[in-house]
Amino acid sequence: MTLDIGWARGVDLSDLPSPALLLGLEAISRNLDEMLRIAGDPARLRPHVKTHKLGWIVQGQLAVGITRFKCATIAEAEMCAQAGAPDVLVAFQPVGPNLRRLLALQEKYPRTKFSTIVDDASVLRAMAAAGEPLEILLDLDVGQHRTGIPPGPAALELYRQMAASPPLVPGGLHAYDGHLSQTDPVLRAAECAKAWETVRELRDQLLATGLPVPRVVAGGSPTFPMHAARQDVECSPGTTTLWDASYATKLPDLNFQNAAVLLTRVVSKPGGNLLCLDLGHKAVSAEMPHPRVVFPDLPEAVFPTHSEEHLVVETPAASRFRVGDELLGVPWHICPTLALHSEAVLICQGKITGSCRIEARARKLTV
To answer: What does DSSP assign to residue 255?
Structure first.
């Protein structure tokens, strides 16, 4: 595993309280360039904003010609609209008050076209009963078994109901294959092709019956290159913006740079080969088994305990560190880790250039 965090090396971090989230502006720009290279055309991209939750990154993507975005929450959708995004897909079926909130977004931000997904007939009926125009995509389960309806007769029938439910507008198909993250790119491509074939068959059946299928939104970061090779797909990678230790480990074929780093400090030396850091559950996501963070300077580290405010590290290099010393770590999963921080410190050309609030980590902005 190679973790490229050179942009964070040598930066004077002595005045920063820890733990802190650092974002490398040059690395983010490089990752955007790589996304554009893989896609071939910014019109092919519908990047997911759930990883970064930052309006200025959306504006940077708009500046290079990306006009379509994908998100998971109403707050993220509003952040995109505030940043000037003209087309936002809320890839989370709106239930309860969220349908009302989504329709309120449409009214508040008329320059942004909002769309969403559906996989359930009762939700479809609620959308139609609201009486407001809304573009909807049929959410397909292509193997992850998290949300969606499997491609087949039931999906075909639900799409027919979508098309027959004015003022709703059928917007096409949504297929997230997040379960496909095999390290071997040949195997990943083969599994991706197998899942895609079921989507293609359904699309062809819909078109053959005269139903419109304006778009197919497919894939995440691991299958991004595979879907980019298909000219009839809108690609929606998200983690590619910031990258993390998990994908750097699992997906060596993808050439993205770690643009998010955690600053932590040694707060105690309990003895032996142990260091205690101020990097608890509240600063780095604890959803995964260890390692939840990877320290490039401690390649042999293991993690005996992890609690709310503390992370205990066992390493043969412990004797090199004193209480108060700094360490830089790359989170294993950046998306939930970023959501734990209210702000990020911005690094460019070896210096701290400012900070930013993580806007859409909130559940609600104004709507």
So the answer is: -
